[in-house]
Each structure stands twice: as structure tokens, then as C-alpha cells.
Amino acid sequence: MFVHKMNEEIYQRASKAIAGGSLSNFKKAKNSAPVYVKKAEGCHIYDYDDNLYYDFSLSAGPAILGHSNRAYQEALKAQIDKIYTNWDGMIQIEAAEKLQQIIPSAELVRFAVSGADAVFNAVRVARGYTGKNLYVKFKGQYHGGLDYILGGRTEKNEARTIDGIDSTDYYSDMCYTEGRARHALDDCLMIEWNDLAEMEALFQEEGNDIACVVMEPVPLNMSGCLPEPGYLEGVRELCSKYNVVLIFDETLTGFRMALGGAQEYFGVVPDLCVFAKAVGGGFPVAVYAGKREVMRVIADARVLAVGTYNGHPIAAAAILETIRQLEENDGESFRMIASHTEMAKCGMENAAKSLGIQMIVQGMPGALFPVFTKKEKIINHRDAIANADFSMHRRFMNLLKDRGILHNSRLVFSPMHTQQDIDYLIRMTKEALTVMASDKA
């Protein structure tokens, strides 16, 4: 086991200056210290006790090029030498043009600072374009920490979203927060993902008032469910039929499944999309983009789209360099990501099988979510609540962290991971599952 003497001392110091001692938090245990990073190289991180961690978090997703990437650093330095305050310039135009080339739906582009910020703006654009007010999101999916897109729950057989915690729903518990505006969720409808019949019934009832549907095309925060065959195509058809703007939140899928995201991978084109995290390779930047007809509400000044740091020149440089590296050798990075993901999935599932533990590993090329279940696959949040053991998931992920695997309850992959990194993940998976098997004995 690792020694955390320095890390604990730093946590005590941090707690006197930073609320909670960390920079972001869900419902983590009180007095639980994060890993404070001293240095990072590739996909390896060292803390102040010189413990080595294998990074399968990648800063919660953004570090698609790994850490201390020299070419990336030089690209940012070169931009700093030109201008590092936020004025309109050529580099933002070049970044937008490049995004137009690689993202199927990106006929017009706007920049933001975070994924939550970009989702907020995309929903506003959809409302401005349609003149309608309601929006639909999906149980178990996450779109950032803003009041009206964070969490929520529904009563049985209802789609209207309300605040509070459902004790049977880990998602509503995780995402509930005090201080939310009382009416923040009044215009939100929430249904099950991968259930086309439920969406069609909702559209038949409320379609005239629904401005948009916001979805993760692969919900990595909800057991890594892939879309069932025909589901995305069916959603696309329903949205077109009812004049509802389809928004893909590609915060996690973008630049990981494919350069053009899930829309390229699955061949289903939304009206609007959000790219964040990996889009800047580690720099705080996000993108919302979409069809010219929809995005024109900004160009016509009907919809306000503002923000001092939107399209910061260093952020634009980060986007361009990230794309440049991912495009090299005819997209070799994506073949490496897919290979790493498949090796990890097979190795982890084989380790579980050898120990008689019922665990599957779901997800997409670039990200995986271990699920403790008797089923061969989990298809949505309702299925996960009924058939997956989240206490075992938490135990397993904590044991991995104790063994030097950094993660965010999911595991994400980079072309900078090595065979050694994947082998270590699989070995530590077997160690962790062995401990869990002995727990049951």
C-alpha cells in the first residue's frame, strides 16, 4: 500500500484555504484527500510522497495527449509569444474552420470555457430557434453542474423533473445539491435512455412545447451503455418530425471515439453538439456548434452568446494542436485508443471470470465502466438500478485507486498509454477482485 504522509499534510493545508480541500467534488466522503500531483509525464503521475499512479482519469477526460506533451506545450508557448489576452484573431477562425472540417454537424461554431457552459448555450440556442421552452434529458446522464441541467428525479410514470433525492436512485443522490433555484427544473422533462417508445409517447403529448433533447450519445456516467441498434436513428427521426433540436453532448465522446465524435462513429448527425474536455487536450475550452440554420440565431443577434474568455487564443491554439496530433498518421491515435480499450476490457472481464465474480466492462472506444451484474449488458439507468451492484463498483474502484490506478469511476484511454500501463491495470484488477472475493468468503 502507498504511503500518504505528505499528501495528508498538503490536504490539511489545502483545507484551510480551499473549501473542501479540493477543486471539484461530488458526494465524496468528508475529510477524504484527493491525490495532489507533484509531476506528470505521459500517463504517469507522481504525488508528493513519490507514489507512482497510472492515470486512467486523464484529468477527468481532457488529457487525451497525456501529460507534459512537448509539442502541445510548444504550441501554447508560441501563442503566448504572440498574444495571450482575449481578442478576436485569426487563430480562433482557424480553430473554427478545423472543427467544421472534422465534426459532421458543425456548420457554424462558437466557443465556451467548459462543457456545462456550452450545454447551457446550446439549449438557449435551441429555444431561440424553435420558440419553444421545454427540454428533455435522460435519467443518469450528466451535463455539468448548472442548476437546471444537473440531476433531478421524477415520480413514477412521470416525465416532469423535480428536485430532491430518490433513495433508490444513486444518480439523484449524487447530483442533488442544496442551493438550487427552486424553479430550476420546472421546464425539464426526464426519461429513460435507450427507450424509443417512451420518447415517442412523450413527444406525442408534449412535442409542441419541446425545444430540444440533450443526450450523451454514449452515457459514460451511467454504466457505459451503448445505444441499442436503431436507437439514435429513431431519436433523430422523432426530433425531425416534431421540430425538436437534437443536441449531442459529446463532452466525453468527442475526440475519443473518433475525431468527429459519436456522430461520426455512429453516422447520426445532431442539430447541435457540444465538445469539451479532450477538445483542448487539457486546456479549459469547450465548443458548441451545429447546423447553420440553427446557429444563425446567434449570427442574427436574436440569441445572446457572450463570455470574456470564449475562444481565448491559447485555447484555440490548444484545439489546433490537439487535432494536429490526433490526425497524424491517418488517425493512428484512434486505432491505438480502440486497441487499448479492447485489451483492457477483455483483460478485466477475464480476471473477473477467473475468480467467479460477475462483472462486465461496458463502454466505447476510449472509455470503460465496470459493472457488477449478472446480466450480459446494461442498457439504461433503469436497468442499472435494478440489476447492477453499485456498492461493489465503489469498493472495486477504491481498491484500484489504492493500487495506483487513477480514475473517475470510469476508465479513459489515451494513445499515450502503453502496453505496460494496460498490463498493470489488468493485474491490479485481478488483485482488487481477489480482495473482493475474499470479502465474500
Describe this protein with a few key phrases.
441 residues, alpha/beta, Aspartate Aminotransferase, domain 2, 2 domains, seven-stranded mixed β-sheet, four-stranded mixed β-sheet
User: What is the CATH architecture assignment of the largest domain?
Assistant: 3-Layer(aba) Sandwich
Question: What does the average pLDDT come to?
Answer: 95
The value of Rg in angstroms is 21 Å
The CATH topology of the largest domain corresponds to Aspartate Aminotransferase, domain 2
Say which CATH homologous superfamily of the largest domain is assigned. Type I PLP-dependent aspartate aminotransferase-like (Major domain)
Relative helix content: 40-55%
> What is the 3D shape?
globular
Main β-sheet, in a few words?
A: 7 strands, mixed
Work out the number of β strands: 14
Strand order within the widest sheet?
4-10-9-8-7-5-6
Order of helices and strands: HEEEHHEHEHEHEHEHEEHHEEHHEEH
Q: State the end-to-end distance.
A: 22 Å
Enumerate how many helices there are, as a single number.
13
* CATH C-level category of the largest domain: Alpha Beta
Low-confidence stretches: none
Total domain modules: 2
